[in-house]
Amino acid sequence: MRGFGVSGNMGEVTVRAPAHLHAGNFDLAGDLGRLYGTVGFAIEDPSLEIVVRKGEGISAEDEDARRFAERFVEKHDIGGVEIEILLRGIT
Q1: Per the confidence metrics, is the pTM higher than 0.90?
Q2: In terms of domain of life, where is this protein from (predicted)?
């Protein structure tokens, strides 16, 4: 597995994240004090790797990334961001 995590400096951050599979089961007897429980597994593919940089305005080729950037810039009152998607999907 290539690994996952966050790296960067004051003006840029790179995030690598694998996909996650979640399997759930109902606790039909109620012995565990809950109705439903899950367990999750990280898998290498598909995965996502993005770079986010300080910028002027908002720059993102992907529509989902652009919507996220707009909300983030507004909420945190920052000048702008540039989002670059390095890897998306199955490698």
Answers
A1: no
A2: Archaea
Q: Which domain holds residue 77?
A: 5-18+45-89
Pairing type for strands 57-60 and 36-54 reads unpaired
Residue 39's DSSP bridge partners are 23
SS (H, E, C) the chain: CCCCEEEEECCEEEEEEEEEEEEEEECCCCCCCCCEEEEEEEEEEEEEEEEEEECCEEEECCHHHHHHHHHHHHHHCCCEEEEEEEEEECC
pLDDT digits over 41-55, tens only?
Answer: 888 888 889 999 988
Residues with Cβ within 8 Å of residue 81, at least 6 apart in sequence: 52, 53, 54, 55, 58, 59, 60, 69, 72, 73
At 60 the pLDDT is: 93
